[in-house]
Automatic annotation (TrEMBL):
It is found in: Cell membrane. The keyword Ribonucleoprotein does not apply. SMART domains: AAA. It is a peripheral membrane protein. Belongs to the ABC transporter superfamily. This is ABC transporter domain-containing protein. GO terms for molecular function: ATP binding; ATP hydrolysis activity; ATPase-coupled transmembrane transporter activity. Coiled coil: none annotated. Residues 8-251 form the ABC transporter domain. InterPro entries: AAA+_ATPase, ABC_transporter-like_ATP-bd, ABC_transporter-like_CS, ABC_transpr_CbiO/EcfA_su, ECF_ABC_transporter_ATP-bd, P-loop_NTPase. It comes from Bombilactobacillus bombi.
Amino acid sequence: MIVETALLQVQHLQYVAEQLVNLELETTKHEILHDVNFSIQAQDFVGLVGPNGSGKTTLSKLLTRILEPTAGKILINGTDYQAVTPQWQLHQYVSMVFQNVDAQFIGPNFVEDMALYLGNFNWSPAKIQTRIQEISDQLGLEELIERPFNSLSGGQKQLLAIAEALALQPQLLILDEPTAQLDPENTQLVLNLLQKLQTQYQITIILVTHKLAELALTNRVLILNHGTITQTCATDKLLTDMNLLQQNQLPVPDTVTIAQHFQKLTGKQLMLTNSNLETFIQTFKEQLC
Ligand SMILES: Nc1ncnc2c1ncn2[C@@H]1O[C@H](COP(=O)(O)OP(=O)(O)OP(=O)(O)O)[C@@H](O)[C@H]1O
């Protein structure tokens, strides 16, 4: 029997932040994450949810080695992060897009920013040019790549930040609340791109989000609460389980409230999600008429 190694394995991860409290260089310690365990298979689309301050951003930074864990291990394709040297080689496996993409760009537009980024990896100008062309063709970004960042909408900048994060063809892409500051139109632009990455390019994605409606794109969710993973489950289970949502201080979607009322009225259990809501309403209308 062949046992496949998970793409990402997180084992007993702990992160303790140390803060300077005075000029005598005294510090206090604050445990942000403890005993975090989970694994992700290649091509999973995973949602990472949890109440404010539960440690989602800290975990994302550990997964991209922006922070080093106090204890525990992270393995990518069975290789310990610590064994990936030099450290920047990890960009070839895992990449992250931050909520505030403006802080991510150094150049004035995508083409120049990619040249600076890939130049750090000693890519030749010709190779950089080919990769820019390739990625903008694949993701349909031709019209944006030479425009100054300051002339683009928040959603367009997110698209370019995602494209840049894919420059080195990582296997795992982590997005920290990519739509938090976007209006509905720009949110849709970003969600469409994520769906395309998943279906056409089979990229493994971790989507950190507060918006439970966005979880419809994912197949699995990790719930982080009080600094540890309290549950991993199929997305449909979370989105239809009022108790699980409430136990983890997550907002209850309207679909769950409707399903609960339906059960009270009819005694029948209903698994209602955004994807089958329209069919449910249609059936209901037909029965009423
Ligand atoms: N460097 C640090 N020193 C001390 N405490 C920190 C540090 N970084 C984060 N924290 C605290 O750790 C906790 C987790 O923060 P984190 O930003 O990871 O949570 P989050 O789940 O991403 O929150 P949000 O949903 O609000 O973005 C918070 O209480 C935060 O104040």
